[in-house]
Amino acid sequence: MKVKILWSGVENFENILKLYQNAKSSLGEILSAFEMADNGSISATLDSFKLANPIAEYPFYVLVETHGSDEAHDNEKLSRFLSQGMESGLILDGTVTSEPTKMKNIWHIRESIAGAGLAGGYVFKYDVSLPLRRYYALVRALRERFALPARVYGYGHVGDGNIHINVIVPEYSKEISAKLEPYIFEEVSKVGGSISAEHGIGFRKPQFIHYSKDKSALHLMRDLKKSMDPNGILNPYKVLPDVDT
């Protein structure tokens, strides 16, 4: 199985959505990852971990990974996708590689975003899913809601609508926390998203689960929990709130 990566710079999020649609139609079965990150995410990561960006600085970045068994066929597909992206202006610059070390370095940039900014203060982290048409709107709304020195970054997995939002502030404060929650969950609920995309509800979000699940769903979840775990000893205190919401 041959793996290739395209790391590219993009002007705006609207172009990322167009590029994603093109990737699905052009790359088809060999498309295995379509990741995005805004400039703030990447800049904070490069600065925090002293990493080098293989391309110049751009407002947004897209990482496309392909897996295929027919190298000539796969190369043709990816080359055509890149050429069309450059010609249309959707891709401003990009680099393609199948060299293991270079691919590892690019993925390292993407996967290091979660830890970026910790040295500069406190990071409020959110993991939500949103319809693609509203995918980046919450980041923009939070930037309007918070003035500097707060910094708001967005990055995630476009293919499944999962976006990670980091809000970096000089230090933790209850006032900032109250301004974030439940605001973020209310905004997610308004557009039919989920308050937790891939990291679960855990201890922190049971009181907010009603923004994603209605009362009938919560009652059913409680009934199933009681039938399978009548003593409440399996993964206690998580997911479901103590009282009806």
Write the layout of secondary structure elements.
Elements: E1 2-10, H1 13-27, E2 31-38, H2 39-49, E3 60-68, H3 71-88, E4 93-97, H4 100-111, E5 122-129, H5 137-145, E6 151-157, E7 162-169, H6 174-180, H7 183-190, H8 215-228
Describe the model:
- With 245 residues, the protein is α+β, with helices and mostly antiparallel strands.
- The protein folds into two domains: 2-113, Alpha-Beta Plaits (2-Layer Sandwich), CATH 3.30.70.2190; 118-199, 2-Layer Sandwich (Alpha-Beta Plaits), CATH 3.30.70.
- The protein has eight helices and seven strands; from the N terminus they run βαβαβαβαβαββααα.
- It has a seven-stranded antiparallel beta sheet, with helices on both faces.
- Strand 6 (151-157) and strand 7 (162-169) form a beta hairpin.
- Helix 1 (13-27) runs antiparallel to helix 3.
- The longest helix is centred in the first third of the chain and has 18 residues, at 71-88.
- The model has no long low-confidence stretch (mean pLDDT 92).
- It is an enzyme of class 1 (oxidoreductase).
- One of its GO terms (molecular function) is flavin adenine dinucleotide binding.
- It catalyses: (R)-malate + A = oxaloacetate + AH2.
- Residues 8-239 form the FAD-binding oxidoreductase/transferase type 4 C-terminal domain.
- Its cofactor is FAD.
